[in-house]
Amino acid sequence: MTTVDIPFVRHLDFEYGRVDQVSPLIRRVIAPNPGLFTFTGTGTYIVGQGHVAVIDPGPTDDRHLAAIGAALDRDIVSHIFITHTHNDHSPAAAPLKKATGAKTYGYGRHGADKPEHGMVVEQGGDRDFVPDVELRHGDVIKGKGWTIECVHTPGHTSNHMCYGLIEEHALFTGDHIMGWSTSVIAPPDGDMRDYMASLDLLLARNDKILWPTHGPPVLEPNPLINAFIDHRRARENQIIACLRDGLHMIEDMVPHIYVDIDKQLYPAAALSVYAHLLHLVDAERVRCEEQPTLQSRYRNND
Predict the structure, then answer these.
(1) In this predicted structure, what is the pLDDT of residue 261?
(2) Which CATH number fits domain 19-228: 3.60.15.10, 3.40.50.720, 3.40.1550.10, 3.30.450.40?
(3) pTM recorded for the entire structure
């Protein structure tokens, strides 16, 4: 089947607990929570000098919280930003808020735009996080020496927010765009149509550099974003080909499409195929005789 060559970047020089000055305004500390969905671990970003913002404080791991505290030194934390509410991103906001008195900022609680469907996926949904300040697309937050622009990018989750650092033409992309891997889109909170629209949104921004929460920075954003768009379109064509070949169930499509991945990732792959099928049903390229589910039978609409 046709595949897209995605220009992944997977080399990252780091040590757990070490703070790295990765740009004039950005420091990074990586949490010791490596895994299939977190790569080397959660990268917590500290923005500014003196009066700072923290982006994605990560899991409630005492070692990581201590490393963040050491990295802050005499800094005053004025803002805590959350890209989205998975357990590798937002839970440490509570102890960090308690320690610093800073307010938390984010789009909303888990499943914010789909409250009837918010679900636990990947590392799990943090249902305890509720931001002190709810943000919306286009909001601008000014700190001392830094300015954050809010870019709502639903798809991976409905409450996913990217943050632009205006002074450096940089964008903190959470799990929406990562240099080391594609993102899992897991319905019902994850939505492929939203994700594709969010990719188009970032492509139009033309940021100079992307800082994902996992993995190294993306130094050439647009080629990677274009490759992700092409990859998703190719995946839809693969699904259509499966249907034409008589594979009508997701469980039959996954091993046929994902021939080179660890079988441990099959459940995540199934969710991604499901997200694509929902998108295809919505676009009337595929039909389902019942309410579409992971166990439904799908047919080509040609």
Answers:
(1) 87
(2) 3.60.15.10
(3) 0.94
